[in-house]
Task: structure prediction
Amino acid sequence: MPTKTEKWRRSLSLALRTIGAVSSPHTSPHPRSLPFTRRELHCGRGIWRGFLSLRKPWWGTDTFGSDIRGFGTESTMLKRNPKFSTLNDDDIRYFKELLGEKNVVQDEDALAAVNTDWMHKYRGSSKLMLQPRNANEVSLILKYCNSRCLAVVPQGGNTGLVGGSVPVFDEVIVSLGAMNNIISFDKVSGILVCEAGCILESLVNFLDQQGFIMPLDLGAKGSCQIGGNVSTNAGGLRLLLYGSLHGNVLGLETVLATGDVLDMLGTLRKDNTGYDLKHLFIGSEGSLGIVTKVSILTPPKLPSVNVAFLACHDYSSCQKLLFEAKLKLGEILSAFEFLDEQAMDLALNHLEGVRNPLPPSLHNFYVLIETTGSHETYDKEKLEAFLVYSMELGLISDGVVAQDLQQASSVWRIREGIPEALMKAGAVYKYDLSIPVEKMYDLVDEMRNRLGSSARVVGYGHLGDGNLHLNISCPQYDDKVFTQIEPFVYEWTSKNRGSISAEHGVGLMKAEKIFYSKSPGAVQLMASIKNLLDPNGILNPYKVLPRSS
Ligand code: FAD
Ligand code: MLT
Ligand code: ZN
Result:
């Protein structure tokens, strides 16, 4: 009788023999289906509109006047800063002259969409969205707003998850979507220069034709923009291999609150002349300037991509598997994602067309491993040897290796679809934490113990980067549940030397919590930099920094 490992070895080699379809140099190496596209966001189809019609804002609609905003107990009551002016007819006239009628949006329906975030959790009451077409127009908009003390929210694809992309009160929305030109691409160096409003997926498609890929990839790629990615320092699914945007972004053009255009649009890999100012804007969430152009280093599209979806009995096995994967797959390991049973259950129940790849029952944990390399046979052998070895060690209890593009895409759909599944399941409290890997799942267990049956605690994330997405799902937002979660979740993270924002940013959600991860001295210096670059504080007010700063 063949042992379980022998049987698996046989099926693995079969699977690996046919995986050539995924590895073809003429197909996209990351064939993932998208949860939504930009068109769906705006045409009344897809999940976004579904949420708009199904879900009520969790703070209710008429509880507060437009000068005070309450975001449940998440942050205390916020008051509109009276130093900001309110729009008048002269302002509208100026903007129409500058941008033309159609780029000055006052239509209520159009404004409803851009006043509300992807989760439908944060909602502003802006009466105006401006759509500049170039950096000069952005400059004139900001110069004018600064002189009038009109507050501004820069907005990209509006997929941010921390309430940073929408107004809190009546801030003017500056939408970058019309600035979507690719400026240059150098095939020798792989350096792409483009405008900030380019949608990530359109850059992926452009580069695919050239034999290159973007160094970042995320589930929101059909809507998010490169300017938004840079401004949030988005991490995503490929950071493990290609590193963060602090490494890949070579240059930026930004417009400061005063309207001054700051040209830092270098295309050099090495440039040690003075302070590297672009890093201030990467991850500054629209609070220091508006990013208008991006220069980014893109890696070549490698011909061999393999995807395995594995089941593990416990978290300790997932951890050991990561250790072994780093050791044995080394330079070809491009993603190491994990999800727990609750996350899998949500995906199976709420995502259309998703089927359990490891039936019949659910496993405690799942790991998605992707390898990306240049040598098909070598990569497959390496992955196969690693899987057999891990099975023998007892780290994996079951698993499949995608045999074609469609299979690879459907296992990625499970992982990438979890945020969408959570939204469909009801209200969700989202936490995006960096925690030392060995401690990471303790928090999920502790949270489950605290909440009992009152909520569903879901854990998934970028295990390879030490990034846990802790999500607490309930039928509706509930203050009793919330007080069990916060401040506990932040205290626990801080005590365990973690960060309360691994990749989503601070936004409005965590502006008052920043001290859990940064010292008072560091926050004070951030406030001084903000004050220097934006003396009137018009750029994305109420976000990132605490009121006290
Ligand atoms: P927006 O949401 O429009 O804005 C985000 C912030 O950036 C705001 O503060 C805004 O003011 C500012 N901003 C936007 N554009 C500019 C600009 N040109 N200049 C200055 N400031 C600007 N994030 C991850 O890190 N990893 C993930 O894996 C990931 N997956 C996601 C999956 C889903 C389904 C969803 C809905 C979100 C996900 N996110 C993820 C969060 C989000 O997609 C990222 O933060 C993304 O980078 C935001 O880009 P955006 O264009 O939508 O920006
Ligand atoms: C993800 O990794 O899926 C994203 O960061 C979104 C989320 O955390 O829900
Ligand atoms: Zn993530």
The chain has three domains: 4-32+303-495, 40-175, 178-297. Residues 229 and 283 are 8 Å apart (CA to CA). The pocket of zinc ion (ligand 3) is lined by residues 461-462, 469, 503 (CB under 6 Å). Residues 4-32+303-495 form a domain with the Alpha-Beta Plaits fold (CATH 3.30.70.2190).
